[in-house]
Amino acid sequence: MDKQEGGSVRRLSKIIMATGGTISMLAMCCLDSDGLYMYYAGAVCILGGFIAGAGYGLRVLSERRREMQIEMFYFHQADKLDGDIELIDCSDSMKEAR
């Protein structure tokens, strides 16, 4: 289930980035218009860049979350193995040897 969730977030981030890039490219085609429409096209271009950046941020967060899950899995496995270790107090034997 975790692999499916991570894959869907990655897929969603790619879709968001592609949508933002497409919006920006289409707005750039309209930048040569005159008057007020040029400013609208510029604003839409910037908005598309923000949407693409949000998709990239979602992808980075997804990767960090995946790495953290892997790290915690191995850390938890190590804790299970460390439960069998018994510490031996050597301070008494060192005093007797002197």
UniProtKB/TrEMBL annotation:
It comes from the Bacteria. Keywords: Membrane, Transmembrane, Transmembrane helix. The keyword Membrane applies. The keyword Membrane applies. The chain crosses the membrane at residues 12-31, 37-58. This is Lectin-1.
